[in-house]
Amino acid sequence: IGSLGKDVNEQGVQNVTVRSTTFVGTTNGFRIKAWGKPSNGFARNILFQHATMYNVQNPIFIDQRYCPDRNCADQVKKKKKVTHFFCVFFCYA
């Protein structure tokens, strides 16, 4: 789920289910990215279910100050709302 909050009046993301996934040798497993600038964007009711990960550096990565080019002058300290986040039957090896 990516680039939340890039625009000020963003609708946000909700009611997302990711089911029966396998990650092998990746940098990130489940990832949520949000720009660190003023926005109405949000992520809520996110369900990750039945996930298996092998040799994954960051099984769950939530980046609330995403800045792809490292030159984001309008970054703010207030973070986006990430609520109702669930992991069910999560295996990591």
Automatic annotation (TrEMBL):
Q: Which Gene3D superfamilies match?
A: Single-stranded right-handed beta-helix, Pectin lyase-like
Q: Which domain of life is it from?
A: Eukaryota
Query: Where's it mainly located?
Result: secreted
Q: Which residues form a coiled coil?
A: none
Q: Which SUPFAM superfamilies match?
A: Pectin lyase-like (SSF51126)
Q: Name one GO biological process term.
A: carbohydrate metabolic process
One GO MF term, please?
polygalacturonase activity
Against Pfam families, the record matches this protein to: Glyco_hydro_28 (PF00295)
Q: Does the keyword Hydrolase apply?
A: yes
Q: Where is the protein found, in the record's own terms?
A: Secreted, Cell wall
What are the entry keywords?
Answer: Cell wall, Cell wall biogenesis/degradation, Glycosidase, Hydrolase, Secreted
Family statement drawn from the similarity comment of this UniProt entry: Belongs to the glycosyl hydrolase 28 family.
Q: What is the protein named?
A: Uncharacterized protein
